[in-house]
Amino acid sequence: MPGMDVFALIDEKGMVVEWGSAAEELFGWSAKEAVGRSVADLVRDTAGGGEGRREGASDGAADRASDGAAVLVKPVLRGESVLWHVLGEENPPSSWDATVLKALFTRLPARLHVLDDQLRVVRASTATSTPGDTRTGHQLGKHFTEVYDLEDPEGEAAVARRVLENGEPVVNRLVRGGAAPGSPGRRIHSVSYFRLEDSCGDSLGLVVSEADVTESERTRNRLALLDAIRTHVVPSLMLDTVCRDVVEATVPAFAGTAVVDVAEALVRGEDAPPVPADQDVPLRRVAFQGPIAPHPGGEVRPLSAGTPFSDVLTDLRPRVIQIEEEGSDSAWLAADPARADLIKRSGAHSLIVAPLALHGRALGVVSFYRHGPQDRFEDEDIEIASAICAHAALCIDNAARYMREWVVALTVQRRLLPQHPATQGTVDITHLHLPDPEGGGAWFDVIDLPGARTALIVGELTGQGIIAAITTGLLRTAIHTLAALDLQPDELLARLSDTTVRLATAYAARPSGDPRLSEPLTVGCTIAVYDPVALTFTIARAGLPEPVSILPDGTSAGVPVPLGPLLADTGDAPFPATTVSLPAGSVLALGTAALADEVLASSAPLRPLLNSVGRRPQPDVCADIAEAFAGGEALLLLARTKPLPPERVLTCDLPAELEAAPIARSAVRRQLDVWGVDDETAYTAELIVSELVGNAVRYGAPPLRLRLIHERMLTCEVSDAATSSPHVKHARTVDETGRGLFIIASLAEQWGTRYRTQGKSVWAELPTKASSTSS
Question: What pLDDT is attached to residue 46?
């Protein structure tokens, strides 16, 4: 060995096994004379100048050998025996070094083991031992993984070999060991590995230090878990979100499986039952996490009497339950077959049942299960389970306070949407509404317009909850009122924007401390008016995605409607309208912003589903999109066009002269007779048409045109090129004119004026006997 002189090899009894040339020169004894003799005899004889000593031996060397100051003793393993290798050292250790080494191996409160290059124990400390340790003397010569009770002995052996090879120490490595006698949990050890080297840096072996840190690690883990619970489980407006956060934070950090059941009353927005809870109080499974899913999911059922789960809602005392081997007392398992099945399938060996309670109200129950190789729950784990449930109960109570408002908001929102849209003769309507769990502001409308036309409206607004629901109701009321004026889509959006501005101003004047009113009110809306006579859609949009048309042959394309600004954010920007012609059997798709990238865009992943509406029923397409869509609140409106049969429309050009009225009356009489309209309605229609034509001749401009449409209602229209607005006059008794529109307003179901690019149409609607019966 470089830098070292090999003297001798000595066995455990102190007998010389080998004697080197350096020892011959130093002590004067030949190998033949020294091997087999006691070291004590050799040292005594050398110090006294005994017989047999070789001439010329150094007295100084003898002196050094006799006091032991010039040698280094290294333990080695040969076979089953430990031998001591005696080497000469240029810089012998001081007495302090020997004292320190002795103290380390006899008094250090951690176990030390010296390993050779084969990872076998050659020396072990005696200062401390844990229950179950073998005696120190019996550890010598064994592989160190046999001395330490390790969960993964092969992995630890690999770590030790790496330190032996590269010299990089491993410090404070946490290793799981076996369970100590009388303790249900496995122990945790802190292990460090250091390589032993000679003066030239060559590896001699390892020093392994081990300390039991089970209690300190458990304390640290508990504190870390509680910190994670406080960080991860935070107040939320959604009950299921809080419960899901609880199970995610506790699995696998605290348990292998966690289940949260809450009182069904909380889910319905009602008060939780008082403590002690009745046995028949229904609980809903809201959150679960673990390797084995319970069945059925989201079940609602009362707790079985005589089980720990029902007992905790009576006395609010959490419990540790040890699941014993088959054949032991399992009466409570028999009383709750569903949980017994979960326990059996998961292999759970212990569980903690803890109540969720606050202010004398029973909010629910949390169940923590451990199974497989996990440590069994102990009584000391109840403290941390109680802390988890106490924090969870605060968050659940916070969510429950808003649950009633959510239930009201969702109910109002559902009631505000058309419950049973009227069946249209010229367009087939299907809608898909994926609501926001917190109550969003998406809505749609289908409104009948004069002339057999139909207005399709899709809108959404910012905000959630009851405020959004109320605002939606106000906007829908405004839309229906404005639609009755028979406005074009662009003008209808402009008027609706004015209404939205007034609502936003009123909301902004509310107290600033209300967080639900802190977000500015903005509204997106798309309006499309379908004319079944001309087979056209006139569309205007404010902030929402571009509509999509799907033709009967299955081809689809976006409808190029210019994008207008969001309502209440317009400034002076207009809402340009576009009129497009679509053949009969085409489908127009309108949707809210959430559908833009998922469904409506040309490259959207769900666009193929939308395109399939040309060959599949609309409800089936909506169901497939609902199943595949993963976004938030969304609303999709599909409208398949049908033409109005030509025989249901009469168009007649009229001269701009006084004879126009009798010509119009004659045409109306003939056509209504063909349609089989009753005499009373026919007479009223003749009178209305006569007054409309008379006003057009007197106040309008040519050309004049009469149109009759028989669909939902009987619609009488007279068009002219003038843009003047007609209005009802209250003529005096002696006046010969001025009663035309008054008569029309008195006789018609409704009447109005629709302005075109050039001119206007004044119309009036009458119910026929068929339409009155159907309505």
Answer: 58
